[in-house]
Each structure stands twice: as structure tokens, then as C-alpha cells.
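User: Design a sequence. Structure:
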């Protein structure tokens, strides 16, 4: 541990014990056999030392390798960070691509267990000065390549962090593309075939910017927003994970 980290942890003397809360999500929750636990660590503690302690207790989590993601107080631990008494740590595999809402003017970012009204979502971003509104309606399909018939899906989220990441995506989309407003709504819980799981609506003066922003937003949402999908088939069930953890999120 470098000196800066030790100094940053001032107030907790070396050798003291601190207690943190650990949350498990998605397939990591099933491997650990619990959704949360309390963990005592020796101070000064960091995200790396905390993760090593977790892996020592739940050795089967090592099968995720470098794809296992780690968050401290609802932010990805992109590098080794100091962990303090009472901190909340979350462990989860790559994301797969009650309602809570964060709004910034006409921009909105929501998680909901209720059905999504795609038309209503689109109308929330419409402005008279805009020439186009693009809406992406992602819904549950019946067949997945290489598997049998899908019966239903279950989506699970880390709500507080998911909303924070969705809000960040919204801000970045507005910076990257010439758009007016963006809204993202994602469902959690059980979903049947044909039901909308995610809806993204973008308004812009010109359609090209709206198309590009919408495509970028769904791609980034599936990469970084902590929401996981479990698919239930006639012959079994499986957690669907991404292609791997984004490299910028595993530098610890």
C-alpha cells in the first residue's frame, strides 16, 4: 500500500479493526450463498485487501477471474481505494445488459417493477424545437441462439448504483451528441415474453444525433450499469453475463 493511501486513511490506526457491509449480486450472490454480510478488516484497509478477504472466504468466486467487478459506496473501484468503517462494498459479475427516479429537467432515469409504457416514455422527451425523437424498446424474446425456448426472465439490480450510472450515461450522452433530452427506464423482477425490459428515448434537433445517442446509450448501459439477467428455459436456467468486464473497471 502506498503512503498516500495510508495518510488518506488517517483516523484509523494500523492494527485496528473496521467493519464494512458486503453486498453480492447476480451470479456472485448465488456462488456466495448470501446477498449481504458484514466483514471485519484490519486497518488501514483498501478495496484490494477487502476483495482478497472476500475471495478467501468464498473461493468459488475466483472462477469469475478478472471479470469480477467491485464497487465501494456505489462507485466502481477502478483503482485501489481506501475502505473505512461502515463503507458499503459490492461484488458482482459483468452486467448483462419499487420504482426509483432521478430527474434532471426533462431527462429521467428510472428503475421500476411496473410495465413500461413506451409511448409515454417517448412523449416525456418531446420538444417543439426538436426534429426527431428516437425510442429503443428492448423486450423479452422467446428464443435465444444455442438454447431452447425461453419461459421468462428475471432482472436484478443494485438500485442506488444503477441509477447513479444511468445518470452518468445521460450526462455523457448530452456531451457526446447534439441532443436535447434523454430518458432511460429499466424494469426489474420477473418479465414474460414480449414485455419491455428497457426503454431509451432521445430527442434532438436532427435525427442522426438522436440515433447515434440512443445506440451508444444502450451499448454503454449493458457494459456498466449493474443490472443482471437470469433466463429460465424449459430445460434449465442461466445467469447471462456480458462479454467480460470493461478493462477500465478492473484496474485495482
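Assistant: Done.
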Amino acid at each position: 500500500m502506498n503512503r498516500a493511501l495510508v495518510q488518506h486513511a488517517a483516523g484509523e490506526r494500523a492494527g485496528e479493526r473496521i467493519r464494512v457491509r458486503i453486498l453480492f449480486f447476480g451470479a456472485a450472490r448465488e456462488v456466495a450463498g448470501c446477498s449481504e454480510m458484514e466483514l471485519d478488516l484490519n486497518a488501514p484497509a483498501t478495496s484490494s485487501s477487502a476483495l482478497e478477504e472476500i475471495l478467501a472466504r468464498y473461493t468459488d468466486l475466483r472462477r469469475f477471474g478478472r471479470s469480477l467487478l467491485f464497487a465501494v459506496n456505489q462507485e466502481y473501484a477502478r483503482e485501489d481505494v481506501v475502505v473505512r468503517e461502515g463503507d458499503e462494498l459490492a461484488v458482482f459479475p459483468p452486467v448483462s445488459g419499487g420504482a426509483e427516479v432521478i430527474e434532471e429537467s426533462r431527462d429521467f432515469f428510472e428503475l421500476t417493477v411496473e410495465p413500461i409504457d413506451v409511448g409515454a416514455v417517448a412523449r416525456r422527451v418531446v420538444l417543439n424545437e426538436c426534429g426527431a425523437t428516437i425510442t429503443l424498446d428492448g423486450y423479452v424474446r422467446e428464443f435465444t441462439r444455442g438454447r431452447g425456448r425461453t419461459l421468462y426472465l428475471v432482472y436484478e439490480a443494485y438500485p442506488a448504483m444503477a441509477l447513479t450510472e444511468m445518470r452518468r450515461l445521460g450526462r455523457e450522452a448530452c456531451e457526446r451528441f447534439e441532443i436535447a433530452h434523454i430518458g432511460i427506464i429499466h424494469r426489474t423482477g420477473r418479465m414474460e415474453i414480449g414485455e419491455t425490459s428497457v426503454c431509451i428515448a432521445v430527442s434532438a434537433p436532427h435525427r442522426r444525433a438522436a440515433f447515434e445517442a440512443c445506440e451508444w446509450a444502450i451499448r454503454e448501459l449493458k457494459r456498466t450499469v449493474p443490472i443482471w439477467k437470469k433466463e429460465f428455459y424449459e430445460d434449465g436456467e442461466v445467469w447471462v453475463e456480458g462479454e467480460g468486464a470493461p478493462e477500465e473497471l478492473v484496474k485495482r
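The longest strand covers residues 196-204. Helices lie at 3-8, 26-32, 47-57, 118-123, 159-176, 207-224.
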